[in-house]
Amino acid sequence: MKMPVIKRLVETRTLPELVAAEEALLEEQTPAFEIEGEDEGEQLTHVFAAIFILNHMQDTGSDFKTALREYTAKVRVSIS
After folding, report:
1. Which tens digit of pLDDT belongs to each residue from 54-68?
2. CA quadruple 63, 59, 67, 37: dihedral sign
3. Taken in order 59, 63, 64, 68, is the CA torsion positive or negative?
């Protein structure tokens, strides 16, 4: 998971574009736009994180850094 890639997705893509990319990756298809990542798993992680962050920003009115912290906190909990 690379934070600069996630940030770029949040700043340049809409929620519907990201959801479509997530669906394409889950169906083992090529997304409509390039997503950085070593493999499809990392690309999916980047898209999923960007979707979470955009939703969190919209739901709470928070900024990117706050939403990113919330996401990384959830990731840490899930792997501990």
Report:
1. 999 999 999 999 999
2. negative
3. negative
